[in-house]
Amino acid sequence: MTDFHTGLGKNPANHQPLTPIDFIIRSAAVYPQQTAIIYDDLEHNQLTQTWDETYTRCRQLSDGLRKLGIDKNDTVAVMLPNTPAMVESAFGVPMSGGVLCTLNTRLDINALTFCVQHSEAKVLIMDSEFADLAEIIDETFPNLIVIHATDDAIDVERFGKMTYEELIASSDRLDNWEKPLDEWDAISLNYTSGTTGTPKGVVYHHRGAALNAVSNILDWDMPKQPVYLWTLPMFHCNGWCFPWTIAERAGVNVCLRKIDADLILQLIAKHKITHYCAAPIVHNMIAGGNAEYKNAIEHQVKGWVAGAPPSEAMLAQMESMGFHISHVYGLTEVYGPVTVCAEQPEWDELDVAERAQKKSRQGVRSHLMTGFEVLKQGSTEPVAADGEEMGELALRGNMIMKGYLKSRKSTEEAFADGWFRTGDLGVKYPDGYIKIMDRLKDIIISGGENVSSIEIENVLYKMPEIQSCAVVAAPHDKWGEIPVAFVEIHPGSTLQRDTVTKHCKQHLAGFKVPKYIIFAEIPKTSTGKVQKFELRQAAKSLAHETPKVSPSATVPTAE
């Protein structure tokens, strides 16, 4: 047997940790004068920044953070819309040795404070848009260093220790930064709600971030210097790793503070946008946008959609505009998309309805993902590839999270038997493509955001009049899904829907507040378990007609 090991070990010359920090270093060296960032809202903000300038500012951000005391594995939280500061944070924070925690900008104050506390954040960079939360955060976390990211579009009173630009200007060293010594080092922390409603801190490593960024390129056949529009929130799975993807391709980040169909269409035409990612609702908004703005787009645009698959109507509208839409699938725990509905040449010959059916599947594993399978429940045995036998979707590979922060038990459960169990149920077709059929977790996906039914139920149970409740999803043309609450009150109690809604608004972010409150007897099994499948059937009718329910309305009780 030939010895391929002795004297052939790893050393600095032949082995370097993978990290997306290398991507910005290369782009700044090779394409220093190419545009890296455009921030153009057609009104207040008109910023263009090169890769050399962006690389310099990221190093300044690193130095500024280190001067504030940030060291290896310290958490730097950011609460920012898709602005240039968010792009720079994707590099500047890990270059400081810190771990980037991108906070969902739609969080209510309770969830926000939990994430800040659980992450042990030492610095929080907040946009002017969230000035109303700054005082509460400052009072709750007196030792937290708050940085105010200002914007010409929003005029608010200054808050925090300093502004973001003052933090950048505080730097006097461009060499005060580092790359990881170990590619397993944490690069970011993302919070996601589980079935208990308690946010889980998902930890990413440098290796996975770099590989997912490159996998995005391969999955999309992305050419050099693409022009990418930030319709996807960068707080969500670090923007599916696209800040690092665009840096690797020396592309252009076209920043977008808010989702506005007319603005999106105008920016696509003006800046010749080539790629964008978004939830189904955003694609629908674009498809139904101003005809004049749509007609001004004369080039092909590629879009990724995750969540609900592209509908026949949306696909037809997009194709008529010259847009090519692909369906992808992923979770926070896997850095964003790790499967893609890879299209076959013969699909081009199908009509729109048949093509939409093909594209409704979650597809096959991404290029740099090792495994994507549908396993029989409680087993590592795959289901039959017949499109009928249902099992749990499971993933494995280098683009799986390190684990859940401060939750060893949840981490071990997630990685049982050498697979990451997604909690989604699906089937596998004879051609190897996989399709999700249902969710093990009762997660409601509304506007691309995950909403925990249990979290809402816990809020409802705070009302003394409520004896039992259950929250399920109802399909919705605009949002994909909306939460619907079935409420059973104690005998003799009185409760009005407006009172329930007001209570929910006091404790939940707006997108989590149930859109329908149905007073009903909750169907249960003999053991007292709520039969949510019956409630889901009842909720589906809400998508097709205006519900006519009264406080005494009921749904059938299980035998």
TrEMBL record:
SUPFAM superfamilies: Acetyl-CoA synthetase-like (SSF56801). Residues 455-529 form the AMP-binding enzyme C-terminal domain. Coiled coil: none annotated. It comes from the Bacteria. Residues 26-405 form the AMP-dependent synthetase/ligase domain. Pfam families: AMP-binding, AMP-binding_C. The keyword Transport does not apply. The keyword Transmembrane helix does not apply. Gene3D superfamilies: 3.30.300.30, N-terminal domain of ligase-like (3.40.50.12780). Keywords: Fatty acid metabolism, Ligase, Lipid metabolism. Belongs to the ATP-dependent AMP-binding enzyme family. This is AMP-binding protein. The lineage of its organism: Bacteria, Pseudomonadati, Pseudomonadota, Gammaproteobacteria, Moraxellales.
